[in-house]
Structure formats: structure tokens, C-alpha cells
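Comment on the following before class.
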Amino acid sequence: MGRITKNKKLALEKIEKGKLYSLKEASSLVKEVTFTKFDASVDIDVRLGVDPRKANQMVRGVVTLPHGTGKEVRVLALVTPDKVQEALDAGADHVGLDDYVEKIKGGWTDIDVIITMPPVMGKVGALGRILGPRGLMPNPKSGTVTMDIGKAVAEVKAGKIDFKVDKFGIVHTSVGKVSFSPEKLVENATEFVNTLIKLKPSAAKGTYVKSIYLSSTMSPGIQVEPKSVSEK
């Protein structure tokens, strides 16, 4: 425990309490205050001035990060035989239908994203109890139920993520890894925040982007000055 505590203390000393950092500064600092042996994820938390309990203030969408998330995304394509080759060519890790439906019924969920097509949604829908709680249920809104299987698989592999505001008005996602350069983290975070701004519900009043924090898996949060995100 001793070493972790010492490192955490060092990390906290580097972050000035109450200071708002520019996105550029925060992206460099998050790399300095992460003391993990593994390549930790860099996460962003954006608190929005919305009431997510109201349907007209729900913020959800998709974004393709210019540099991807750095995570290896394992994709399962549940498709009819005529689409199998298309899914494989696009880089899907697992491709099939009935065999995988049975595997999932047996408790297998060793994947990050499922892409499927409208004609087989009946079979996939029956897996809701297993897939729903794990956030794996395909959804037309996030582009994971489509006839364009190849494109959907390729986009997810390239770093397309979907997000939605939680019940506290916070949107949380990963914008890269600690090994990314500060520039790549800045570009990914900027793309994400700008996407959120485009999705601002007309019913939301007052300040929309209330606060932004950047952190890694093991680091304290670094508060980012929201105005700095649009600055180059």
C-alpha cells in the first residue's frame, strides 16, 4: 500500500486545488500524475446543465474520436450468412448467428460491441436480459442495428463510441490512453465536447457545460476550464 499512497500524494501535490486548467495543460498533467504499471485509460466527465429525467433534455449520441480510444474493441456481428464475409472483411472478431445466440444464452459475453441487422433483431431481442444490464444491446440509434454491417463494424473498430447523460447530468467516456501524446488527448477530448455542444437540447436553460474533469483510471480528477476546449 505504501507506494501507492506515496504516489497518490505526489499526484495530489502536482494538481493545484481549485485551479481550472486549460485542456492542453490537463492533457499533459494527467500523464504526469498517473502511476500505474499498465496503460491506463484517460476519462472525461462533463457535467451538463440538463435535467435528464425530462425526455426533452436527454443528451445521447455517438462520436468518432480522431485517434480512437486506444482500447481493443471486440466486435461480434450477429448476421445472416450473406453478410458474414462483409463483417469479417471489416474486422469483426466474431461472426455468426444461432451459434452465438446460444453461446450468449449460456452466459458468454466476452465482447464489447454487438452489431446486428433488422431482420435478426427478433433473435437478438430475446437476449435482452443478458445484454441489457451489460450495455451490449444493439440499438438503431447508436448505429449498431443496420443493414450496412461492414461500415458499422469498421467505425466501431476505428474508435466510434456512443454515450448518454446519466441521471446526475454527467456524461462520462474514455478519450484515450495515458500513452497517447497530449495533442492526441486534446483532439479527442475536443471532438467529444464539441459533439456534446451540438446536441444541446433547446429545453436546457442556463449554463450548458457546467464542469469538465479529466482523469485516468488511478489519478485524481483535473478540472478543465470549459472555454479552453474550443481554443486551439
Remarks:
- Residues 71 and 176 are 8 Å apart (CA to CA).
- The mean pLDDT is 91.
